[in-house]
# Entry
Amino acid sequence: MKFKQLTRHVWAGYTYWPLPVMVWIVEDHDGLTLVDGGLPSMWYPMREALRTTFGGRPINRILLTHGHSDHIGMLYELTEEISVAIMAHEIEIPFLSGEKSYTTLREGSKNKDIKPFPKNKIEPLEMKGSYGGMIPYHTPGHSLGHVAFYHPEDRILLAGDLFTAIFGKLRRPIEKFTANMEESLQSGAIVNRLQPKLTACSHCGVVKEASLQYCKLVKDQTN
Ligand SMILES: [Zn+2]
# Structure
């Protein structure tokens, strides 16, 4: 797992499995926010990076873009060691607590990788709130309760699986893992609204000025 500073406050931690998987550490005046939980194998290098790269500063909260297994993997061990809330959109919470199962192809086959979290470890995001300098935006489609997080000061959107990024190009989320592609593409219009300088995707990287590519992306889908 490698770490790269994307903006003043935002770091990416990424690994390869077989797609690149990215999580983010966001620095704030009072500590750190972890956005997404990646894969189980990411916990030990993350723990080491917290001690070294991030100087032992505390993780104050964990924010989830959504609850697919490749976005929560390290959280089982992390929350054993660190007492911190996992926050997700309220629609996504039943999928994390085991009351509901994802139904898309990959989700169906991977639900076995999603061990339910105890309900007292999960909290709903306040969608009008601000967390570690970021504002959550409900961006449904890939999953029902998918959220993207925007850091207005750094002008970076942590997009989760709202998009993918291939060699700096904005691409749709992976179809077979996406509950409703049309809705997800509509949610993607958030890049026109927010005009982020950088859009960081869980798979496989960062896109500059995503709004310039968004219209083409939608057209390609409808052709
Ligand atoms: Zn996903």
Remarks:
- The helical segments are 43-51, 75-81, 93-96, 105-110, 181-187, 190-194, 211-222.
- The chain has a mean pLDDT of 92.
- The chain has seven helices and 14 strands.
